Each structure stands twice: as structure tokens, then as C-alpha cells.
Amino acid sequence: MHRANSPLTRDARRRRTVLALLRAGVAALLMPLISLDAGAQVRPTIGDRAAAGKAREIVRPIGQLAVIDGIVTDTLLRPLGSADVSVVGIGARVVTSENGRFRMLQVPAGQYLLVVRRIGYAPTSGIIQVPEADTVRLSYTLVRSDRMLDTVRVKERRVTMRMLDFEVRRKQGQGQFITLEEIERRGSLQTSDYMRSMRGVEVSRVTTQAFAGTQVYSRREGGGFDAGGQQQYCAMQVVLDGIILPRNFDLDLLPPPKQIAGIEVYTGAATIPPQFGGPDRRCGLVAVWTRDGY
Question: In this structure, are residues 125 and 244 in contact, taking their beta carbons and an 8 Å threshold?
Fold first, then answer.
């Protein structure tokens, strides 16, 4: 009559309890696998989030834009307001504030020619390297100019004073000239292409430890390139809208032909007009004029 409390019965209940617990444990272990097979969503762990973050870093977008931030002062380090700052070729153009500061946003990465001008001061220029997703900080100093501005003459067709001077020099016949009409007729993609047809000059792509780019050389100096590929031609001075550009200038940084109004080339110092004079003009000079001016 006391069979329920017998040792055999108690042992049987314990065995059933252990088996039930084992079955529950196995089910708990198998549940994640069953859920994955059924397409159920699993809550991500901290490790999963970290891995996802690394994956997003790997596929981050390229070609991110940069910022140019700078200041323009005079020789006494006084800020210059109303100075015009331009990045040649990409249409970026700003005017400095009263504290001489300027800022350009969303500038594509690359190498550019930057020009700074202000009335009453000699313009300056420089080559800048803009990295991706970064800020370039620049500082420029302008020297006061003693030159007085000529009176602007307005005719039936809008012609700037600098292009009137261009026509005067072209009629004198001292150098070689490419007019706006010829530029539009030929339709070349690079401004340097128009210089390749000039007599006495050589336009070449150069890559050395010190410089890489397209340059224009005067054939009057030296005799080309030697067997080792060393430059023997004399690099010509390049001027943009009357602004003297850095030595060994890369022609690829010039504005595109659609922005050019005229080009004049002087292959030797003897033919260079007085207004283009300078300390070293023995290699000749190339003057490039834009339609709107820099």
C-alpha cells in the first residue's frame, strides 16, 4: 500500500526529472540554430556592431571634398579686405573679409594654381595641394604697387584693356600670337596644345624627382634632352593675366581653352616687351590671357 514511497518509485521520478532537464538544455542550445534556419532576427552583440563598423569604414566613399582656409595681409602683416582669391580652372572665387580671411568649401582634392589680387597691390600666385576630406590653411602677403591703373576704354564690343594691349603687341609682330577666334576654331582640350604649334618652343611632359608635369621650353637654349633624359631646354616663364607664375610651372594647371582669350609667346629675351620684363627672362615668356580675368 505504500508503493508510491518505495525506493524504486523515487528513483524513477528522479530519472524522469533528469531526462526532462537534459531535454530542456539541449533545446536551449539548439534554439539559436533553429531560429537562424527559420530566418528569425538575432539581436547583434557588441562584437557584431564593431565588425559592422569596420566594414563601413572599408567601403567609405572616395573623392571627399576639402576646405581651403586662409588669410591675406600686406607686408606689415595687416589684414587686407576685399582681396580677390581664385582657384584657377574650377571656378572657385571668393573675396576676403575685413579681417583678411577667406574660406572655400567643397573643393575637390588635387593640385591647383591659386591667384590672389587686390587693387593697389601686386598680385601673387602659388601652387597648392588639396588633400581629401581635410582643411588647407594658407597665408599670402601682397606688396603695394606703385603702378596706376589705366583708364578703361569702352567700345562697341566689350574689350578689356589687357586685350587691347594684346592686339597692339600682335600688330607690332614681335612674338607669336593665338587669338580667341583661333582658339574657338581649333577646339583643343588643353591650353598647352596651342603652344605645340609655336615656332622655337617645345612642350613636353616631364617626370623627375623635383617636378612632374607639362612644361614649355625654349629651343634657343640648349639642345633638347640628353641620353639620360635630363632637361637641356630652358623652361620659359609663364604669365597668367599679367601675374607671374612660379618657376617650372605645370601647364596642366592653366585654365581650360574655353576660358582663354589669347596667348602670346616670346622665345627669347630680346623680343619680350618691357611690361613683361623681370630678373630672368633669358628663356623667353608665354603670356596667357583669360576672358574674364584673374
Answer: yes
